[in-house]
Every structure is written in structure tokens, then in C-alpha cells.
Amino acid sequence: MLRLSLVIAILATVSGQRISPSLPAPLTDYWIPTGWSYHNVATLGPSPKTVTSAVSKSLLDLETNPAQGYFGGGGVVTPATEAMEAVRVKAAATLNAFLNETAVMPSTTVSLNNVAAGLVSSGYVREGDRVLTTDQEHAGGLECWRHFVTEQPILAALDVVAIPVNPTPTSADAIVALFAAALKNHTYRVVALSHVTTTNGLRLPLQQIATLVHSHGAILIVDGAQAHGGVDVDVKALGVDAYATSSHKWLLSAKGSGILYISSTIHRYVTPTFFDGGMSPYTASSGTRPQHTLAGLGSAIDYFSQWGFDAIEAHNMDLRNRAYTLLSKLQSELHGLVLVSPPPGPLASPIITVGLPENVTSAAVANAMAENYNTVVKVQYWSFVLFSLHPSKTICQIIAGYWSSSIFRGRRANNASSGDSLHISLV
């Protein structure tokens, strides 16, 4: 059995190692106060100083001549409408999407609301249809479908594929089999799910699921909020029909920014009013948009491009897998600790979720993190605490230190379902 002090020393060594000469990014790139660690990228990422500067500059520049600064004229060299379109070009490239398939949006939730409404508006989703989803979805990916079950009753049902959490599926085939079984029960025109689950960081095998869904004549709509920026995303390789992101999470963009991909193959089926004028940032149907927020999105993409999305994923996963290996060794030392995220492999993402012992609440953990370690975490309404690894400090070091405190001493190991859970997102 490893001594806790030795484990902390090992973890500190791991956190200081780099898999590329330029990662992790320096703490001085961010506004996080000295001595504090921010561990909640899965909710909102800390924007780099270059991003906040781009937001401020865009906002202040516009206010010197608002109308012409936004629409052009009066000697304005690059009006906001053109600048926002340039950001859309960058955004499309990050997903390997064509420009006519890409829109810049406020969030994943707003994007999926428009997709769902558009599918109903076009008549693709008809009265009595059913939508298939999973039991691991965020509310932002569900409400757009629930609306058409309860508020504007069109759908007959929103059916759910139950994905095991403890233990998690061990292979992509096992996950695909769950969807294959569900697709045999009813006829579906839409399957809606997450790329990376917000609950335990399971990375769903989208390419295989897309092939299966299409073989049943349905389309695949994806909530990519916990993926883009944390992992490299290629919508063409994945074969999905629509993919929505929240760039203010893992991409560390300005708050209220995201990207929506809608494959040209389903454009005729997705016809919300918002896109009547096209997918450019400013149209007659979309109206005036916050150009300063989109300036921040463009700056965030530039920031990530210093290393490349593939290198960032490799760095994230290296940290995540080392953390997982070390935490798995701690399960016998720290009674009640249960890992409920996938082990290293193709189903893993930068998120790790840890089950807490019985009678130990996530609120208690969050408070102790803040009071004892100057660490910012979030208590989710479903009893998770979310963390995101700061480049200057290892979350595993903090976890090990906290689990050695008196709140855990003398407790017996319990199944993860009997206590709260700790959700760690590594970046």
C-alpha cells in the first residue's frame, strides 16, 4: 500500500512533466490570482489575457463609431460584420467543416434549440415521432426535445438508452450494442447524444454510432460541449449530422460563444427562423450580434492554434491517464474512493469522475478545496463537483491531500451510488 506522502510526491513530479516543449501553457497567460487554482473548465473556462484583450478592444473600438463600425462606411476599414465572418471561417476550420455548414452561436443549448425547432419547422420531425437519447445528457441537450413532448406536444416520447456508469462499458462495441438494441424497438428519425458525457467523461464512439443510426434512416445530433477544445474534433471523420459546441468551456473563449455545424446533407431539414437569412453572423433573421464576444472566440482559436488541437488533446489525455492510474492505486488507501470514468483508452476523455464515500457530500469537498487549497470547484445540482486541471498545479495532488484529512478517516469503502461524486475535468 502506497504511503500518501509518496503518492503526492509522485503526482507532483508527473504534473511537472511535459509531453511537448510548449505545454502546459504558462500561468501568466491567465487572470487567475496567484496561489489559486481553477478546476472547472467543464463549466466555464478561464479565458487567456489575449482573449479578454480582444474582447475589450472590439467593444471599445465599436463605441467610437457604432453604426459605421458595425456595418461599414465612414472610412471604417474592417466593420464588425466582416470581422465576425472571419471568425466563422476560423471556427469552421477547427471542426473540419465547410463554411456553409458552420454558424457561430451563443452556446450549445441555443444551437440545439435551433436544430430541434428547425427539424420540426421543416416537417422532418412529425407528430407522433420519437427521439432517442441517453441517460447521461446535460439539460441543455435535452430541453430542446422535451419541449416537443410537454410544451408543444409533437413527439410521442423521448426514449433513453441507459449507459452503465459503475462499471463503465469496456469497449466501443458494447456501447454500440446498446444503441442497436434500442433502435430495434421503435422507428426513430433523430438520435441525440453527447460526444463526451458531462457525468463521467465517457467518450462515445460517434463514428460507429453514426453508421448505425444512418443505417436505420435516422440523423445524429451531437452535444459537443465537453469535447471541442478538450479533444480534437473532426465532424467529417465522425460522420455526424449536427454538432454543437460551447466555446466558453474547453476552448477558453469569451463567455456566450459557441459553434454549430449542420451538415449540408440535412440543411433542408433544419429550417429555424434564425437561419432563414443564412449562417453568417449577421443576417436579417439573426439580427445584431455581440461582435466583441466573437472577437474573443477568434482570439481563443488563435491561442489554441499555437500548439494545435491534436497536441492539446495529447497533453490533456497524458495528464488524465496518469491521474487515472495514480487514483486507481489510491482506492484501497482512501476508503470509499471509486473511479466511475473509463480507464485509459478510446472511451476516455480529459474528464475523470470519482465517487465519494457514503455521507461525504460534494459540497463538503468543494468547501474544503476552497478553504484549504485555494481551489475553485463547482457543486453540480446532481451532486458532482467539477474540476479542471490548472497548468501550474495537479488536481491529483489536491485530491490526495484532501482525502487524507479527517473527513475520510475511519470510513468504510462504499459503492459509488451510496455517496456523492467528484467530477474532475483535466485540461
Question: In a nutshell, what does this entry contain?
Answer:
With 427 residues, the protein is α/β, with parallel strands linked by helices. Helices cover 38% and strands 14% of the residues. It starts with a helix and ends with a strand.
Query: How is the largest sheet built, in terms of strand order?
Result: 2-8-7-6-5-3-4
Strand content: 5-15%
First and last CA, distance = 29 Å
Q: Which stretches are low in confidence, meaning pLDDT under 50 for 5 or more residues running? A: 1-21, 381-419
Give the helix proportion (percent range): 25-40%
Features of the shown structure:
single chain; globular; 14% strand; seven-stranded mixed beta sheet; five-stranded mixed beta sheet; 427 residues
Notes on the protein architecture:
There is one protein chain. This protein is of the alpha/beta class and 427 residues long. 38% of the residues lie in helices and 14% in strands. The protein has 13 helices and 14 strands. It has a 7-stranded mixed sheet with strand order 2-8-7-6-5-3-4, with helices on both faces. A 5-stranded mixed sheet has the order 9-10-14-13-12. Helix 2 packs antiparallel against helix 10 and helix 7 (172-185) runs parallel beside helix 8.
